[in-house]
Amino acid sequence: MVWMHVDMGEIENEPVRPKITDAKGILQQNREFLDFFWDIAKPEQEIRLKAIENLIQYLKTSEKTDELTYTLKRLVDGLAHTREAARPGFSLALGQVLSVFEEIPLRTAFDQIKEKHNLAKKLIRNAAFGNFFGVLALSQSTRLPKEPQVVLECVQLLQSLSQYREHLRDLPRKTMVDILSETSEEVFEEVLLGALQTDLSSAFSTPEQLQLLLVAMQKFPQVLKPKKLKKLLGTSTIITMDNIPKLTDVLKMAARSVKKDRLLPAVALDLLQISLREDNFELFWRETIINGMLKDQPGPTHYLSYRLLGSALPLLTLAQLKQVLNGEVMRTYGEHVVSAQVNDKKYIYALISPPQLPDRFKFAPEMETYVGDFLQGCDDPEKQLAVMVAFSLLTNQGYPVVPSFWRVVQHLQPTALQSYVDWLKDMFLNPRLDSCLDFSTRRQKENQEGGIQRENCIFRLRKWIIPRLTSIAENNQVKREEALVMDVARFVFFHAFFNSKKATPDILETEATLSVPLDEKTRAIIINSFFGLLQHINHLPLLGDSPEVAARNQRHMQGVMADGSMWIFCLVRYADTLLNQPKYVKSTQPFSPEQRQAWDSMLASVGTLMKKSKKGQTPETSAFQQLFLLVGIHLFKAPEDLVDLMQDLQNCMEKAQEKKSKKKKAEEPHWAEVVVDILLSLLSQPSRHIRHVCRTVFSNICPHVTARALTSLENTVLDPDKDEEDSSIVVTDDKDSDKIKKKDKKKRGEDEDDEEMSDASDDDSDEGEDEAMEEGSEVDQNFRIELMKVLQNQGALATEEDGSDDYELDDEAMMKLDGSIAGLFLEQKKKMQAKKDEKDKLKKEKTLVRDFKIKVLDLVEVFLARQGSSPLVLGMVEPLLSVIESGMSSESDQQEQDFLRKAADIFKNQLCRAKQYCKTVGNRQGELHDLLEKLMTKTQKLSDSSVSLYFFSASLYLVKVLRGGCPGPQQMLRFMGNVDVERVSAIFKGALCSFMTRRKSPLSGLMFVDLFTRFPVLCVNLLVTAVEHITTGVREHQQVRLAGSTSTITSKKRHLTLDQEVLGFRKTGQMEDTYWAVMKHFGVIKPKRDRTRKTKDQAEPTAPKKKKGFLPETKKRKNRKKQLPVSEQGAADANTVPLGKPEGGKKKINKIKRKLPGGGETPVQGPTKKAKTTYGLYVCT
Question: Helices (H) and strands (E) in the chain — how many of each?
């Protein structure tokens, strides 16, 4: 208690504190009310807005008169808050309070603001912020126009705040513009005009002052008449030749002020509107923008010009649009786009780090937004067409700057879209390069000293037009009709394979001839574009907006037109029309008689199939019809390769449609086998369209596929031991196949454009690759020997007889030596290049073969999905496992991993986990049991546990197949069908013993848990073996996992009886819990522990105190030389046998010996391992 008296004494001796005063009235307010102001100052915008809303509601319901006065005072104080985010919050709150509670005079609020934030007494920065946000609050209250005198004083205060630009920048001027836009004409003329006299007179000084004048002219045209402007500015209009230099300087200042914001200053748009109102737009655009802004180096002034161009599109007339879009601003914009793309190419090819090459700003996405907004809001098709044509004519050596896939096309009206397509077709036929706004970059001009070749420009223009046409037909967002899509498809097909000889009204494509013939490169691009378009329209939904079309699209009708005919059939019919008009049309690659016969037979077969399909459509009919059309249309691309294929297809159809079975020759294949071979041949070609059609066709003929047909698939793709070079399928490679393999059409267009723009960069990549090859290659010993021979033959090596290191050759010998060495290095370079080409060739072939196998896996997946209950799927178990095993054991690239992942996914989801599986095995029971034993034997020998999981899953799948379908749910646990239970139990018993006795077993406990759960009958036979191994398992987690399996099955089979003493668990830790979980199913409940506390009387007697200075008995060193008798030693060893292990199973425990300083050694036991709890959690779940 002494310390308490001391503290009390200290308290009594302290001086008396002064009386607390509450000048601000804070202590009189409640906590809920004060929390509103704390939340208003928080940085989170949502919290601030919610606090302002709650504050208004609180003040409306409050009955205290002083709370509104306190609120006004507190909000005015917070206008100069040190926290940046708090100042706008207090300003907004003050504006809302003044707007809701009109009993507060604005004069009172304004006087408080000026008094609290006095610029003469306070810190300049805080006072400036307080005054500005106070005026902003008054402006946001919407009551300011009602009190003209307060408006005047606010404007004067803002004028005085304009000098603090380092703190407020141009915010006071912008606020003045906002106040001016809300002021009435009467107040402006009587009150504000005099106060703003100075700012209006110096309008050409700053962007803010000029914008103030422009807003006043737009808002009050009757006040600022030409005479008044003459008095203020010296001119009656704004856009004059005398004012152009001043306007240019002001716009440059505005451009630099928004450099980081990347937006169009309001003053620039106001100037544009004033020029249109004064009918001086051409003067403004020519002198201020072209001759003023664009004369600066590329930067903010150029970007302002581009933004002004995009913003001007909705404001201009048709004539003005054509004038602006064909001028210098567009040309400069095109140079910017190309240089930005070349900059990216240089970064990629040169592998320069970002700090060495800064990221250049790209304006193209922003311009696309401007054009898209204009097209979306424009109702005039002529203006829409003018803008699209103008941007398409902006070319870099013939190649347009905008991408071939441009999303803004979707906003075109149908009339404008059709006109734009007609214009593209006309530009393709008659390239008018003089109408293009063409330009070349500085590097392009340096590299092309001889001038630009017209033929190259035409090629580049046509190379862009064809993808643009196909992208319009393929884009689902474009409002197109069937006639437009077919028009584009016919145009592309005609110029891909035909030439016009004479015009005829029956073929519209012959009415316009090519002014410049097509070269081979252009035609190859057209061919690839056509087949890409064919791939798209093959699964194109019905076009139109009618309810009938929507209802038919819900049935997933693809590849057909409104009348029910297929798109590809219409194109084939159009191609036949062209072939039958040799007088007017000439084929670029005429058919031979044999090829023409194949074409005619294809048409006849399709006609026959279509007649039969009218009576009733069958999957075989649809499959053959699609195959005939596919092979027929591809005859124009590769006629030599597909003639024999067409004949085989014809024979297949005839065999498939035979009504009466005829005696077949032993060696004659089934028609489905031939179709599968045809599909494999087609899949070897790099075409997404062919891949899609082959998948659909194979899906239709799946019920007719035979074992030999599946074997051909397995030999092609599923047999990893088969040498790829011995395959009968030849995988072809197309030069432009990469275009077809693009996954995203937009990405394809952008890649093509980037490839074209890369022509502007330097062409030193080949030299760089050669240097890298020479530097990175290893030293060739043969080359070194040859080099030494050359040097010795020329006498360039010093010998011992020379006796000096300073050995020199004369000039003639040196020149001769240089020639020999140069020839040797040239030969070595050719050898290295040949090796590199051979390596690249092999790698490319391997890639093509693997890509082909991935395509064939599609057919395997389709068969397993459609015919999962067929006995033929059992033959795919081993080949799929072989693919997975070989893929897991080898290091592979990304394509190999994709192939392996696809094969594993098919095996797991389409085979093992499929709902439909083979339930009738017939006389194959013995074969399946042998296969099961083979798979389980191999499962135990594998080294990779992930691979063994697939083999074990295959074994369970075979057991499921042998069991077949269950008669009913009541017999599901006992029914085993055709399974030889004893043999299968013995197989899994061996696997279980291997799992429990091998330390590095590839098996896992989850496998047996799955086995016991799905087939309880097998678990009954394995239960005794499992229980025995629970106590003798090699690893404890194996015992836990197996005990969990036993617990699972006994929960299902409660009638099982088992000697409880067989379960000899070690009752420690997790094993004890698992033990009692298992015993619970046998009716044995774990006894509860007695938790009663012992009383003091029952407490054990305390041990006597030990004497100090003497060691206890347990610490005394024992005499190790004394040996126990044999009987006692045996008893001691028996006591050390762990619970649950047999006596004969003792293991020597190696003890770690620690050396003592004196040279002795003492045994030290290692740390005890803790049992993992993961498996215990698994069992409990």
Answer: 52, 7
Distance of alpha carbon 681 from alpha carbon 642, whole angstroms: 9
> Is residue 665 exposed (0-12), middle (13-18) or buried (19+ Cβ within 10 Å)?
exposed
Please say whether the beta carbons of 130 and 80 come within 8 A. Answer: yes
Which residues are CB-contacts of 463 (< 8 A; sequence separation ≥ 6)?
399, 522, 525, 752, 756
Residues 197 and 237 sit within 8 Å (Cβ to Cβ): no
pTM of the predicted model as reported, rounded to 2 decimal places: 0.68
Closest CA to 383 of 326, 322, 320, 318: 318
Structural tokens at position 923: 């006389």
Residue type for 801, please?
Answer: E
Residue keyed to tokens 């004048």? 213
Long-range CB contacts (within 8 A, 24+) of 99-107: 99/140, 99/141, 99/142, 99/143, 100/56, 100/59, 100/60, 101/59, 101/68, 102/143, 104/68, 104/72, 106/138, 106/141, 106/143, 106/144, 106/147, 106/150, 107/147, 107/149, 107/150
H or E element: which one contains 437?
A: strand 437-439
Tokens, residue 476: 């689902």
588 in Cβ contact with 498 (< 8 Å):
yes
Non-local CB neighbours of 167 within 8 Å, separated by 6+ positions: 124, 125, 128, 129
Taking the C-alpha atoms of residue 757 and residue 771, their distance in angstroms, rounded to an integer, is 25
In the DSSP assignment, the letter for residue 668 is P
Retrieve residue 109's tokens: 């609020």
Query: Residues of the chain with pLDDT > 90: what percent?
Result: 17
Nearest by Cα to 274 from 322, 324, 226: 226
**DSSP-assigned states of every residue in 1047-1063:** HHHHHH-TT----GGG-
User: Please, what is the average pLDDT of the chain?
Assistant: 76
How far is it, in rounded angstroms, from Cα 709 to Cα 867? 14
Taking phi over 0 as left and psi of -120 to 50 as alpha, with beta for the rest, 180 belongs to alpha
Q: How far apart are CA 468 and CA 448, in angstroms?
A: 28
CB atoms within 10 A of CB 524: 15
* DSSP annotation string for 158-182: HHHHTT-HHHHTTHHHHHHHHHHHT
CB atoms within 10 A of CB 354: 8
- pLDDT tens-digit profile of 1020-1073? 777 777 777 666 655 565 666 566 655 555 554 443 434 334 444 444 455 566
- What is the pairing mode between strands 394-396 and 498-500? unpaired
CA angle 486, 490, 492 (to 5 degrees): 120
CB atoms within 10 A of CB 9: 9
For residue 971, pLDDT over 70 is answered with no
Instruction: Please write the tens of the pLDDT for every residue from 784-825.
Output: 777 777 776 666 655 555 544 555 666 667 777 777 777 777
- pLDDT for position 1172: 38
> What's the length of the chain?
1181
Q: Angle CA(503)–CA(508)–CA(511) in degrees, nearest 5?
A: 35
Pull the structure tokens for residue 673.
């086998």
895: exposed, middle or buried (C-beta count within 10 Å: 0-12, 13-18, 19+)?
Answer: middle
Whole-number Å distance between alpha carbons of 890 and 888: 6
Alpha-carbon gap, residue 61 to 50, rounded angstroms:
17
Please, how many CA atoms are within 13 Å of residue 321, restricted to the half-sphere of its CB? 21
